[in-house]
Design brief:
Distance between the termini: 35 Å
Protein name: Tyrosinase copper-binding domain-containing protein
Family: Belongs to the tyrosinase family.
Strand content: under 5%
Bound molecules: copper (II) ion
Keywords: Copper, Metal-binding, Oxidoreductase, Signal
Strand order of the largest sheet: 1-3-2
CATH topology: di-copper center containing domain from catechol oxidase
Cofactor: Cu(2+)
Number of domains: 1
Number of strands: 3
Pfam families: PPO1_DWL, Tyrosinase
Structural class: mainly alpha
Number of helices: 11
Amino acid sequence: MGKFQETGSRRELTCCKLGALVLIVSQMLMRITSGTPVPAPILPDNCTSEEGCCMPQPYTGKPARDFEGDLALPIRIRRPVHKLNESEIARLERGYKLLRELPDLDPRSLSNQANLHCLYCDNGIYYNNMTWPLEIHNHWLFLPWHRMFLYFHERILAKLLDDDTFALPYWNWDNQSSSEEANILPRIYSTNETSYLRDLNRNKCAQPPNLVHLNSIGGCTDKTADELRIENTQVMYTQIVTGAPTPRLFFGEPYSYGDSGGYGPGTFEDNPHGTVHLWVGDPDAATAFNDMGNFGRSARDPVFYTHHSNIDRIWTIWKTLPGKQRTEPTHADFLDSRFTYYDENADQVIVNLSQIINTPLLR
Ligand SMILES: [Cu+2]
């Protein structure tokens, strides 16, 4: 099972440097020679998951169709989770209650959405004749794949709630204000024992009122709240502003059809995205750092979606920062990669990556 931040810019190669060099060179050669966008996998037929992440069989939905977007949908505005009002909280609770009540055979259930995320990372999908499994982390597909995963998660909740205005909230962990409770694990996701937003596998040191540690390597820290506010601000500034002035630095290394993934995360994917995952996961779980800290189970925790809602938001903000290169990659292997998801009706939909960066289309 893959752990967040197993690779990345912050990790020193302490052994096998020669082996790593050979691997990197062969990766670069593969990138030069492969050069085609990732085609849409056939779900669940392409599944090779050894972690039991395959989607329900047989597939009972309509034949997979190309995503078109629905311009008749209302524009949804995502709000900070610590500022939701009572009716918004009740709606969110009800949505996750309905989601958790879906049967195991429904590909929209919370556990099957987690399985879909698992499939796209933990060696779950091998294309015919390919040496490496498809991987959507640690390179430039990370941000767009997760944006669309969230899009369908939001649409599934909206359908269950019969409310097309439903929008996911975002966990505003980048906000270090001492007068707001933005940078703690959201209370509505953590403090009520009967809440449908809770998850039992979490780090005991990630409970409110402890502040998030954006430089976390998992587990606890003895830093004070003031120290954490300063360090968190520094992390945001170096990872999003000074350390990521180009698409390659922010999104990560190129990834084409058939490549081995996992060697080139962008600054943002690594930290704070990966560090927040690790901070929330339970270091003492049977599989250390479950649920949030492992690819295979992270999307079982409802906080995953509010965390990634903030990732999506910061991606949008990054594009507005000064500098002429704060744009999405323009290579066809990026723009024309295609992914298969399940929509709010449990039908398979194939999305072209260029649609994912077209936010008006996503409403
Ligand atoms: Cu992920």
